[in-house]
Amino acid sequence: MVLVDSVTRAGESVIARRRSVEPVVGASALPTAPAATPAERAAARSRAGTTRLAKFHVPEILFGPGSLPEAAHAAVRLGARRPLLVTDPGLCAAGWPTQLGAHLAEAGLRPTVWSGVTPNPKDHEIAAGHVAYREHGCDVIVALGGGSVIDAAKGIALLAGNGGTILDYEGVDRMALPIPPLVMVPSTSGTGADVSQFCIVTDTARNTKITILGRAMVPDVSVVDPSLLTTMPDWLNAATGLDALTHGIEAYVSRAHNPLTDHHALQAIALVGEHLVRTMDHPAEEGARTCMAQAALEAGLAFTNAILGAAHAMSHQVGGLLDLPHGVINGVLLPHVIRFNAEPDPHRFVPIAQALGLPGQIVPDSTAGAAEAAEWAAAEVRRLGDELGVPKGLGEIGVTEADVPVLSAMTLADACLSTNPREADQADIETLFRAAL
Ligand SMILES: NC(=O)c1ccc[n+]([C@@H]2O[C@H](COP(=O)([O-])OP(=O)(O)OC[C@H]3O[C@@H](n4cnc5c(N)ncnc54)[C@H](O)[C@@H]3O)[C@@H](O)[C@H]2O)c1
Ligand SMILES: [Fe+2]
């Protein structure tokens, strides 16, 4: 299987060129290699002279095969009478919105289906969705789809509550007024948009993606029914699965990580390592699909609270240059970024390697052992990419040596770099891009 050959649309370039991130108080106060017990960790924090404040936001989550009808009950609980069901043509062809529409009707609601979203949702699509919301007197928004549909639904809610155009809200916490309740039903196992505080929209005038960030963007309810994943095409499954893996790894080593995000990050990494390939080989198998749905969910919980790192900062620039899926670009970049980040201090990569199945002969109880474990993790991510058909290097997908200086300069301006565990300057990023060519 050659993944990129089967791809016909732009990949996400999520969080691209964001100007600022929500601050996490005391994010740099934790030791890089956490002490063994909670008491020791508390003592370490106390020695450092700071008390870390961990913030963790999360929607209500309903999870499990067959949970789709719960979206209707959730809408009722949120006061819906006339929900707007946001979705897209691909999902309509797969039949899921028809099923959800029936559940909404059975619950006594009068839904309006609006399916005007395309991948990488556009500013004018959000405006059109808002018109539909107003014209039909809607009160709650229910989204069924991948990250594109979910972000479009968030954007429509933002306009319904605050007016103006979606581009007015680029940045952090720019919305002043409450928005209609949001019920999300994700149909891909990757983005985590159903639990995140991010909303990524294409600015069609500037031909770039903007990021809207804020607590108000965290949905009220996420209904994760893994059955929906069975109709994903293989390329989408592989790309979104690699995106979830990258979310988990970058969130775990992020400068803004905290004990609440660590757990979810490691769990996501382990689940992708164990189940992504199986979903490719056995697409109808419920167990593996359920594990990948959980992986995407937990990676989302980790990254929306801990933010990301250099792989995403670099990937966004490549995604802006080329029309390729974000998860595939991540898959190429991630092993190189792991090596770069582990070089000065490999210890935090040991739990990552263990989550991916570090073999017993590597004993990470010394710095040299930890470095060996980190190198094994980098190689394991590459091995997984090979199995999924990820290109060997960025050169294979169209990046040239001549692109490297510009891509590197733009990477430095990407907010995801600010939470990367190792400082990186222009020369470092250029070296990383060249290694990944
Ligand atoms: N808000 C966030 O936190 C966040 C995080 C990551 C990515 N994103 C955004 O998510 C978008 C990418 O989302 P995505 O990768 O989930 O894909 P997508 O929503 O763009 O969907 C891609 C295509 O797959 C089809 N599809 C989706 N699920 C399907 C299913 N179950 N069966 C059949 N077809 C299906 C859709 O119809 C669509 O044509 C990007 O715009 C990206 O910027 C947002
Ligand atoms: Fe991502």
Automatic annotation (TrEMBL):
Residues 60-226 form the Alcohol dehydrogenase iron-type/glycerol dehydrogenase GldA domain. The lineage of its organism: Bacteria, Bacillati, Actinomycetota, Actinomycetes, Pseudonocardiales. The keyword Repeat does not apply. This is Iron-containing alcohol dehydrogenase. Belongs to the iron-containing alcohol dehydrogenase family. The keyword NAD applies. InterPro entries: ADH_Fe/GldA, ADH_Fe_C, ADH_Fe_CS, Alcohol_dehydrogenase_Fe. It holds the Pfam family Fe-ADH. Keywords: NAD, Oxidoreductase. Residues 238-437 form the Fe-containing alcohol dehydrogenase-like C-terminal domain.
